Amino acid sequence: MLVTARGPPPPAAALATRARAEAGTAPTAAAALAAAVTARALAGIGDHQGALRAVADARTIAERLDTAQAADTWFGYPLQKHHVHLSQAFTLMGDTREAYAEQEAALALTRSPSVMTRALLAMDTAICLNTDGDPTAAAGMAVDVWENLPEAYRDGLVRTRAESLHHALSGSAHARLGEALAS
After folding, report:
1. Residues 6+ apart with CB under 8 A from 95
2. Sign of the C-alpha dihedral, residues 129, 134, 136, 137?
3. φ, ψ for residue 5 (rounded to 5)?
4. Closest alpha carbon to 145 in 100, 176, 99
5. Which of these, 21, 172, 23, 157, lies nearest to 92 by C-alpha position?
6. pLDDT tens figures, 46-100
7. What pTM was estimated for this model as a whole?
8. At what angle do helices 171-182 and 135-147 cross, to 10 degrees?
9. SS (H, E, C) 42-86
């Protein structure tokens, strides 16, 4: 079963698409980020063709970024961030082969402890496991991530992904993840 993000994705997709248009055609960090966020948003509303076009756009722009634009700063768009965004887009589209590849690429570039990045990627992996038909492994991975996550990181994106997975699970896998999320 494909897991989609809950919340108001159509307005988010419209906003992301507008931001992408505003970012222009020059290879900038803003343009690359806007394209990647557009891919995630369109994937979240089920527009897979639009999401794939946005992924291609993000990849093309990311390949053309100069050193300053690709820097790991507040204003840069480093490759690690790029792969994290594409992991989520492919996860939402149910394309686990591409999602796993993006997760591996992001982890290979994640040199610091980066608690949030690692948790988000692991939740994407758990969702992919469920998509691939292994809800027990999916719940196990999500529970492990959740239980080892510091309290300060248990809101926002990680919680949203865990709750989306929980919603998609059934039976004992659903119950196991639900107990972890409630604790």
Report:
1. none
2. negative
3. -65, 145
4. 176
5. 157
6. 999 999 999 999 999 999 999 999 999 989 999 999 999 999 999 999 999 999 9
7. 0.91
8. 10
9. HHHCCCHHHHHHHHHHHHHHHHHCCCCCCCCCCCCCCHHHHHHHH
Q: Reply yes or no on whether the pLDDT at 4 is more than 70.
A: no
Residues in CB range of 125: below 8 A, 6 or more apart: 99, 100, 103, 141
CA-to-CA distance for 22 and 71, rounded, in angstroms?
A: 22
* Nearest CA among 172, 1, 182 for reference residue 91: 1
Alpha-carbon dihedral of residues 24, 95, 182, 152, nearest 10 degrees? -40
Examine the pLDDT at 33 and tell me if it is beyond 50.
yes
